[in-house]
Automatic annotation (TrEMBL):
Keywords: Oxidoreductase. PANTHER family: 5-KETO-D-GLUCONATE 5-REDUCTASE (PTHR43669), ALCOHOL DEHYDROGENASE, PUTATIVE (AFU_ORTHOLOGUE AFUA_3G03445)-RELATED (PTHR43669:SF3). The keyword Oxidoreductase applies. The keyword Oxidoreductase applies. It comes from the Bacteria. This is Dehydrogenase.
Length: 269
């Protein structure tokens, strides 16, 4: 896809990977709708983009809800025109362990998975009719491997990868591109939050991420994601070692599970 002249919606763009993605798409010539729950965060991202000469508007709201997604798409059409690229980036770590109640699961399923499904339902018919469009699902290496300490995060990231695969298989020959972004450790407010958490399981999850390999800044993730959209590449792996880990997992699942149990025990789990 030629990114210059497109309209891109990015959720969770008030900080972290989302903010860097918004700036990278804008630098590539796309007009960007910055979605976030934080008005201050969204405004700061828009200011950074416009200061650099880009075009952006902020939309404050819940991108996990159908109404919130409608607001994002309407704002994009009003400000710039039809949406060409949708980046489902917003995500949460959720409760540790199995979660305390069903509300924990409902929340993380809504934010990390159903938000992707609802956005696709709103956009795919339009994209299919005009023969073009691009969906980016920001998942995690946890969606290919797993996440120690947080069942909800691991399950929903696996599901986000599966949904992106399904979209690509179903619509890839109809002009709709799909990329799935699966970084390992990235220095973001999400990772900082669990690193400093009072919950020992959350801290163990953070240690698992930090000890697994390089914790990079979000800039590299954004660069590779924009390149993937430009080139039509499905799987985006900012940490190349994830591919080796994924292959080892598939080559001997029981051995991999045993290794993960040992790794968890070494972290105090």
């Amino acid at each position: 896809m030629q990114i210059e002249g497109t309209v891109t919606v990015i959720t969770g763009a008030g900080s972290g990977i989302g903010r860097t993605l918004a700036r990278e798409f804008a630098a590539a010539g796309s007009s960007v709708v910055v979605g976030d729950l934080s008005a201050d965060g969204a405004a700061a991202t828009v200011e950074a983009i416009t200061t650099d000469g880009g075009a952006a508007v902020a939309v404050v709201g819940d991108a996990a809800s159908t109404d919130g997604i409608t607001r994002l798409l309407d704002a994009a059409r009003d400000a710039f025109g039809p949406v060409d690229v949708y980046v489902a980036n917003a995500g949460i770590i959720g409760a540790s362990g199995l979660g305390d109640d069903e509300a924990d699961w409902d929340l993380i399923l809504d934010v990390n998975l159903r938000a992707h499904v609802r956005a696709a339902k709103a956009l795919v018919p339009e994209w299919e009719a005009r023969g073009s469009g691009y969906f980016v699902g920001v998942a995690s290496a946890a969606g290919l491997l797993t996440q120690v300490g947080a069942a909800g995060y691991s399950v929903t990231k696996h599901a986000a990868v599966g949904f992106a695969e399904w979209l690509s298989i179903t619509y890839g020959d109809k002009g709709i591109g799909v990329s799935c972004v699966c970084p390992m450790g990235v220095e973001t407010p999400l990772l900082s939050g669990i690193t400093d958490s009072a919950d020992p399981q959350a801290r163990m999850a953070a240690a698992a991420v930090r000890n697994a390999g390089e914790v990079m800044g979000p800039e590299r993730v954004a660069e590779l994601t924009v390149a993937a959209v430009r080139d039509g590449t499905f799987l985006v792996l900012p940490h190349p070692a994830v591919l080796d880990m994924y292959r080892q997992k598939g080559a001997d699942y029981d051995r991999w599970l045993s290794g993960m149990r040992r790794y968890q025990a070494g972290l105090g789990g």
